[in-house]
């Protein structure tokens, strides 16, 4: 029997990867020994470096020549400055690795140096409660967002904008964008930073902000690590609520689902968090909710059948404190009365602010216990203009994915006006656009649920977008050629390239993004 074309394509990539590894330029022993002579507060590892050749995507693995465990920002600067001094003839590159949550080897450096940012021991989190200036927190680039939250909550404060998963580093998410259900109100995380400390590709340590070294500041935010390694960030804070009313409802009509979301993100008085999910071929959806949520009407909820239907889940929160519970209840009732969801599917629960923001970690622990966390994750994240979202949904959910169920599918709108267009992040041109995330897992080696199957579906989705003129942009894009990146940045490529030549002229930093190759780099799977 002839194997499916997607599987043939997958194994062709395996062969290409093997050939690339055979031809990879390995730094000579003199270069590596020179690293060991650098005066550092931390240290280098030259053996047992395999952990730095893995990431969350679990689709490619490139061994570094060395791993830097920095004891200070100076260690990072010294290392980059040394690599820069080797000149353009040296193939040595440097990649900053946070919590290793990249999808296609973006935080890896094949036969280069990986900087383990979580090793950075420097000034701990410093919270400025306010007073003369608005409240903020200074956080090391290698600090996890969950630790930032825990520390700021001690002061009754918290960052304004989040990612869905908090066990990521500050520098990692700020190098991309950092998006979650609060983005419609506060913008992504990159729109909520007051100051950065950066080690450039020349090894210079630069403090930058909107007022000082502004070009580097905006370049680094969403800059995919191309212009410098973020070693510290000053993040804007706001008063933190104690509690959250967490709500889920279902829709069967896509148009009502999206129109209600758009109404909520444009309203002056709305919920504090708005996200949506697409549910395909799931059974017992409401029964699964009962473990954490309670139905508004248990009898009606028990009669609801989800089998074999495409449904749309709207997830909402309203923040409150114990002394304003009644006010919260009234506001939620008014807001829900404006929505057109299936009334029998209204579920809610009250949790602490910390519990809600750290909700994905709870799922992570369950998946780890089942051996389903460290599997390939062929995720696809798209930004779709509002004008194209219905056409996109009809083709993707109605045809391409009609028989699939490989993982959660996110779909929710955000406002372009909340995204600072001076950063390096690339988004669609329309005021409202949708984040659509296909968060697939591939635990099987072949057939349905395999990486080849998921990659084939991703390929079909991307090809449809391109052929139909959807106007999408990829988020956490897995491009492998500069031509693809030029198309991604469009008119902004010239600025991006100019900044690269200014701050990292030898293309030392973040080689795993494959934007500005310094040497022959292998293709990811």
UniProtKB/TrEMBL annotation:
Its EC number is 1.5.99.12. Transmembrane segments: none annotated. The keyword Signal applies. Pfam families: Cytokin-bind (PF09265), FAD_binding_4 (PF01565). Residues 1-25 form the signal peptide. It catalyses: N(6)-dimethylallyladenine + A + H2O = 3-methyl-2-butenal + adenine + AH2. Residues 60-240 form the FAD-binding PCMH-type domain. GO terms for molecular function: cytokinin dehydrogenase activity; FAD binding. InterPro entries: Cytok_DH_C_sf, Cytokinin_DH_FAD/cytokin-bd, FAD-bd_PCMH, FAD-bd_PCMH-like_sf, FAD-bd_PCMH_sub1, FAD-bd_PCMH_sub2, FAD-linked_Oxase-like_C, FAD-linked_Oxidoreductases_BP. One of its GO terms (biological process) is cytokinin metabolic process. Its cofactor is FAD. Keywords: FAD, Flavoprotein, Oxidoreductase, Signal. Monomer. PANTHER family: CYTOKININ DEHYDROGENASE 6, GULONOLACTONE OXIDASE. Belongs to the oxygen-dependent FAD-linked oxidoreductase family. This is cytokinin dehydrogenase.
